[in-house]
Design goal:
Structural class: alpha/beta
Distance between the termini: 33 Å
Strand content: 15-25%
Number of strands: 16
Order of helices and strands: EHEEEHEHEHEHEHEHEEEHEHEHEHHE
Shape: elongated
Helix content: 25-40%
Amino acid sequence: MKRSCKLLSTLAKEEFGKFFESFDTVLTDCDGVLWMGDNEVIDSANITLNKLQELGKKVFYVTNNSTKSRDDYVKKCARLGFKADKESIIGTSYIAASYLKNIGFNKKVYVIGTEGITKELDAVGISHIGIGRDVMSDTVVDHLKSGNFTLDPDVGAVIVGFDQHFSYPKMMKAASYLYNKDTLFIATNTDEQFPSSDFGVVIPGTGSIVAAVQTCSAREPIVMGKPNPTIKDVIAKTHNLDPARTLMIGDRCNTDILLGTRCGFATLLVLTGVTQIHEVREWEKSEDAELQKLVPDFYLDKLSDLLDLLP
């Protein structure tokens, strides 16, 4: 059966009331839904999300962005006017560190990424190397002869997240570590690009970096972020999460909405980020079952449009 996506604001008052009472938990993406970059709240998204909490909804901030730790996100939420605590932040850096801790990992991690990942590794007592600049000195041969390229024999895992300093030497090191089939290959997420309202350019996301390492190493990563259901499992360990009474809000259908579809959540797309409604309309008409999974239940132009609908 083909899925269809309705504009939420067109529901009759009674119908919206039934929708609103159908969920207790809200999982929301962040970049492109709540904010753009570090300082731009998207049109009263903070007021909207805080209102949902005042009305009794449990809110989790679910982000594929690996550049910040949970503590960093709590500070950002406070600065931008969102009510949040550490337990309500579910980020891929945290999930990756928790995954390694839970399997009893006791070696070193080579990190392509930022302090968002290493802070979470530090929190669970896992040592790491790799963040920061690692640039090519000249040709590959000269670089290898220079002594600047060394491999640590204690590395037992490679984590790939977003890294503005991603370079050819980093790709070589990651692939070299992964040549050992016992070395774990973890990707925080596979988002192709970041939502951006500025500059008129495409900002490559973590998925672009993961794809490079994946191609070079001929290895498949374990993906921590959306649409992988690992996020649902992490929340369910500490909170009573009923998929049938959960709403997933996002701006990207191949991560946020697909997670919701796979987990049995209701789904709400906002058009302030990556996916646009004309794409959804094409997927609605498709006979491809995988494309049908990308179709959300509802959409709004922006999250704050929900404010006028709330009781």
